[in-house]
Amino acid sequence: MEYVKKCFVIVIGLIIAILPCYSFAQVAVESKAELVNVPLKEGAIISYADKEGKRVGSKEQSTYYRKLLKINGNDNYLIQDFFTDTDNKQVEPTLFTNVKDIYAFMVEDIGDIEGEYIQWFDNGQMELRGFYSRGLLEGMVTSWYSSGQKESEFNYKDGKLNGSYKFWYPDGKLQTDAQFSDGRLDGVVINWYCNGNKKEELHYSGGKLNGLVTRWFKSGEKKYEAHYKDSQIEGIESIWVKENNQLIKQEVYFNDATSQDVFVRYFPSGKKEVERHFKGNKLQGLSTSWYENGEKSIELMYENDVRNGDAVFWYKNGNKKAQGSFINNKKEGVWHYWYEDGKPEETCSVYDENPVSCERWYANGNKKLEGTSILGKKIGLWKTWYENGMPESACQYKNEIPICKIWNEAGLLIN
Fold it and tell me: Name one Pfam family in it (predicted).
């Protein structure tokens, strides 16, 4: 009787709690048109199966074979599975109370298995032990590794997980400790890494996350923390990520009253790096970034993930770098730019991302350029100056063709 590994996978919101695997007996379900069921006779081999539990037609193809040990009256059949290569038992004698199940079955699909169920490894080590009542698992189910080390131990009532659930690593260290009630998680669930450090701790009530959820990195640092109510995050969700061997903290503030959430990211020093506001998973309202020294870096306004409104950019020393407005994610209106020391660098009137009229200055304060454009094309008079303040050029544009006067730095007209 081949066995199948099964896992609990509980997905709730952003939380995925994976409880380790446990084993159940199975025999493959096959079409009666492909394989002929042999007559029922005590002591006879009635079927063969490959390593995946799929029925095959001969001993040479098989990993397991099945014997009918005894027929007890109507619909009481005692069968047993063996390893083909060694003839070692793979399952203890098992009682079935429906003839349709004795050739091919999967435990979760049948209701007519009764009594103790024991499964073995080929080396003679017990692999699984449980008890069925009216086709349902009842009481403690225990599994072992082929080494003899206990693998799992959990309790059933009327075919549902109920009570303690534990799972161990092959070296004997505890991997999972959980509690079930009527088939649902209830109480504290703890998972550990193989090095013994705690991996996660979750609190359940009636199958739903209720209370603190905490996760850790394998090295022991905290990875995640949030409070849940009825499997929904309540309040702050904190997440730590590793970047360049440093832990970076990120937080999301959930506000059910306004449906507006706040995302915050911190520098390794603990100082705030980013704060963004969301509504319906879209950026909404003020978004702010900081330098690690605490000075602001950027302030932007968003509407439905689109930049709309005032925008300000700063240098690390706190002086403004640029200031203007966005409309539908495009620069509009007057934009000002400054050098790091606070002196003006450029002022431009902008329409649909395109400069209309601009003035620029050198770092020493002397004017560098002035001119006007329409849709990126220069029009009218454009002037430029040398850094010493002397005029450099004066060009009149018509149909994008310039007519220019040009001077050298000494002020002499050269063209």
Answer: MORN_2
